[in-house]
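Hey L., structure's done. Input below.
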Amino acid sequence: MEQTQELAQIIRMHRKVAKLSRVQLAELSGVGKTVIYDIEKGKESVQLDTLRKIFKVLNIRILLKSPLMDNFQNSENEKS
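Output:
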């Protein structure tokens, strides 16, 4: 499954489980209602800040994964 479609399904599922309409999610997130519709339909050009607002309302955390993340985390720990 394409990542954009997967993200759309995740957001839609969380919204429905939270018993929120698209309009309610938009209002709580501080974004336009068409933004929620567009995201759930798989629109690819969405600003990260917009997604972060929606994720916050839906209690979704972003976890970054890559083969280099262990190296990144180790270097960040060494800086502390």
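The longest helix spans residues 3-17. The radius of gyration is 15 Å.

-- N.
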